[in-house]
Design goal:
The protein has 15 helices and eleven strands. A hairpin with a 6-residue loop joins strand 9 and strand 10. It is of the alpha+beta class. InterPro entries: FAR1_DNA_bnd_dom (IPR004330), MULE_transposase_dom (IPR018289).
């Protein structure tokens, strides 16, 4: 192992110890170690994985002598293959129908909280192959007294004449399904199931595909730490996602999709951009525009009204584009070191074969919404 890779491993391990101390303390329990592996374990295995390009035989790679002294003790004796076997053994198709019957809600069943009722119903929905949506909520004196949970396909979308002008309309997801679960607060402080309907007006999907449904996708605290550590170490999001998938024994056991992975990184980057930084950028652009009205800038907001993407072009670039804008290249491969934002310049070539910049954008991510 090269010295550079070992230094990267030490850096990642240090970050993991600082950020997930509570998880690292659980490594002493073998059961917890298998189901909640340390991020330091996963990323150290990833960084220390031998490369086939080095000509190392499979027999040599499996040799315990190639493991760095103390590494097995550090990892708690676990490995990715063991984690995969445990995750695979947890799903038994032969007992699936029996589990569904045992987990089916019953009228009169009680829960200690509304969240507990939701988790129970959502677990049942995962085994049945449908997604859950939270519906009616009634409070009295700042306390929840009634809550209903419905199938995600409940109801129908309201008619909007503007939808007729949409070029690529979204697929209809609601079909008027009446499956639901209602709980009410009782005098004893427990939440009791008052109504349950398990009849769906639509075909349910296979439980092996339930992980695609929205209510069953969640980035856990441990997974979030791994995502952030991978980003800090310069590992591509796709590689981190594939590593986590192997750790969980497959994508169906991971609990979220690659899209959720990218959305989490996007959200963290938005948090890192302080409001004063955004205000300073806008102030700078307005100053340049006041000095030269030909300068142009624009920005994009997300659903929460936060600044996400910036676009700007100066007077010189406008002139260059009018002269040499016949061929233009759009490149998003460059990322700043401090914030990890994609910097996307529009570039061309003048009559001296020199690269010129027509305009530039600073993006939060490379999703389709950012490029529209």
């Amino acid at each position: 192992m090269s010295s550079v890779r070992y230094k990267v491993f030490k850096l990642v391990l240090t970050c993991a110890r600082v950020r997930v101390n509570t998880n690292l303390r659980k490594l002493s329990d073998p059961a917890l170690r298998l189901h909640s592996p340390s991020p330091a374990l996963d990323f150290s295995l990833f960084l220390l994985r031998p490369s086939k390009a080095r000509g190392v035989s499979a027999k040599t790679r499996r040799s315990p002598s190639n493991t760095r002294p103390g590494f097995e003790d550090l990892c708690g004796g676990g490995n990715v293959q063991t984690l995969m076997e445990v995750a695979t053994d947890e799903i038994d198709p032969q007992n699936l129908e029996q589990d569904i019957e045992n987990q089916e809600p019953r009228v009169g069943q009680e829960f200690q909280s509304v969240d507990e009722a939701y988790e129970f119903y959502n677990k049942y929905a995962r085994m049945r192959g449908f997604s859950v949506r939270k519906d009616t909520l009634i409070r009295k004196l700042d306390k929840v007294v009634f809550r209903s949970f419905i199938c995600s396909k409940e109801g129908t979308k309201k008619y909007n004449k503007r939808r007729e002008n949409v070029k690529t309309p979204r697929a209809e997801t609601r079909e008027g399904c009446n499956a639901l679960l209602k709980v009410s607060l009782k005098p004893n402080g427990m939440y009791q199931v008052t109504q349950f309907s398990g009849i769906h007006s639509h075909p349910v999907i296979s439980p092996t595909k339930s992980h695609f449904l929205k209510s069953h996708r969640k980035v856990t605290e441990v997974a979030a730490t791994q995502i952030e550590l991978g980003s800090l170490a310069g590992i591509a999001p796709k590689q981190v996602y594939e590593l986590q998938s192997r750790q969980a024994g497959g994508r169906e056991n991971l609990g979220y999709l690659h899209m959720d992975h990218k959305n989490y990184l996007r959200h963290k980057r938005q948090e890192n951009l302080d409001i004063n930084v955004a205000a300073a950028i806008l102030k700078y652009f307005r100053k340049k525009q006041s000095q030269n009205p030909a300068c142009y800038f624009d920005f994009q907001l997300d659903a929460e009204g936060q600044v996400t993407n910036f676009f700007w072009v100066d007077a010189r670039s406008i002139i260059d584009y009018s002269l040499f804008g016949d061929v233009m290249s759009f490149d998003t491969t460059y990322r700043t070191n401090d914030y990890g934002r994609p910097f996307a310049p529009f570039v061309g070539v003048n009559h001296h074969n020199q690269t010129i910049v027509f305009d530039a954008t600073l993006l939060y991510d490379e999703t389709s919404e950012s490029f529209v």
